[in-house]
Amino acid sequence: MKFNIALLAGDGIGPEVIEQAVKVSDAVAKKFGHEITWRPALTGAAAIDAVGEPYPDDTHEVCATSDAVLFGAIGHPKFDNDPSAPVRPEQGLLKMRKKLGLFANVRPTFTFPSLLDKSPLKQERIEGTDLVFLRELTGGIYFGEKGRRDNGETAFDNCVYTRAEVQRLAKKGFELAMARNKKLCCVDKANVLETSRLWRETVQAMEKDYPEVEVSYEFVDAVAMRLVQWPNSYDVLITENLFGDILTDEASVISGSMGLMPSASMGSDIALFEPIHGSYPQATGKNIANPMATVLSAAMMFEMAFNLPEEGQAIRDAVNKALAEGIVTEDLAEGGKAYGTKEVGDWLAANI
Ligand code: IPM
Ligand code: MN
Question: How far is the C-alpha of 69 from the C-alpha of 51, rounded, in Å?
């Protein structure tokens, strides 16, 4: 098959980790007889520096006309320390999500048998953890009306959801649960928030269409606790934008390294794949960043965007083998030999 893939390397370690994912994807394409055309485009601080805009129209055009988007990371410290900056790289990310209609952010958390001792949590707590968060990505407090009043002394961010937004996300959640262990947890704060009551009522009404799925409703504060106590009791969790942002960072430590966790953002049309870690400015250009999360994001791309599970599995097998044989970057080396970003990428590509 032939694919056009938009390549948004972004900022910080983005370009380095993306380079490894390209190498590994090209190795997969060669092995299985596919042809990939990579279509690089500017985003984030890199795009602000070049054209004054974090998600330029040209970049959107490239994304919207490709078969999938592979994304590195965006963010630059020069903007973090300047709250008055008129344009920020993160605005590009939000604009991209909205314009591409990426309403469902799929963030899996699983453990690697060879890395159980790397997690800060006790091994017996995390063994067998295999859960997926489905975070709503284009609504809620991120996109509601925001502003200041009273001469700037009062600030507000509105949280707004429509029933249709909840339904389309929940539908993906039910479908995912059906394809997995048939358990769905709706995470909300329905004891306090009106938007959460709309979420709960909407999901409850959909239960009858999926009689095999066991649905639970839990408050977000309780989930924050249970996630580190009994992560292996969860299967699929659906939640709104901000709760999902926070809980998925919490969940990422279960696996032992944020440098391992991939993600996908789906809409009705195009899908985007990216590591859940950020631009990690301190590591930029040092050849130390872990490329595995981005490489595993490419695996998700083959599986979910192109419906090619064998190709995805080939990548997962190479990553598991590298972990088992200690071909890892310094975040996972623990006193053993640490390989460079590029060397791990080369090894993975050679082992496809
Ligand atoms: C994420 C990030 C973004 C978010 C930021 C960079 C805007 O934290 O993808 O989780 O909050 O969604
Ligand atoms: Mn986040």
Answer: 21
As beta bridge partners, residue 73 has: 10
| pLDDT over 70 percentage in the chain | 100
How far is ligand 2, taken at its centre, from the CA of residue 107, in Å? 11
CB 101 within 8 A of CB 268: yes
269 is in an annotated binding site: no
Q: Is 167 left (phi over 0), alpha (psi -120 to 50) or beta?
A: alpha
Total domains present in the chain: 2
Closest approach atom of ligand 1 to CA 245: 10
Pocket of ligand 1 (CB under 6 A): 90, 93, 245
- Residues 352 and 313 reside in one and the same domain: yes
The tens digit of pLDDT for each residue in 177-187 reads 999 999 999 99
Q: Which domain holds residue 169?
A: 120-255
Same-domain pairing of 77 and 172: no
The residues that are catalytic are 142, 189, 221, 245, 249
**Statement to judge: residues 243 and 151 lie in one domain:** yes
The strand pairing partners of 262, in sequence order, are: 275
In terms of domains, do 335 and 347 share one?
A: yes
Nearest CA to ligand 1 atom 12: 245
Whether the predicted pLDDT of 27 surpasses 90: yes
**Residue 96 pLDDT level (bands cut at 50, 70, 90):** very high
Mean predicted lDDT score pLDDT of the chain: 95
State which ligand 1 atom lies nearest to the alpha carbon of 248.
10
Longest dimension (CA), the chain: 63
